[in-house]
Amino acid sequence: MSGNSRYQEIKEELQSVLTGRGNWLDTILPPVLFILLNTFLGFNYAVLGALGIAVIFSIYRLLKRQSVRYAFGGFGGVLLAVAIALFTGRAEGYFLPGIITSVFTVILCVVSVIFKRPLVAFTSYIARRWPLDWYWHPQVHPAYSEVTLAWALFFGLRTFLQFELFQDQAANSLGLFQLLSGWPATILLLIASYLYGLWRLGNLNGPSVEEFKAGIPPPWEGQKRGF
Question: Around Cβ 151, how many Cβ atoms within 10 Å?
Answer without folding.
Answer: 25
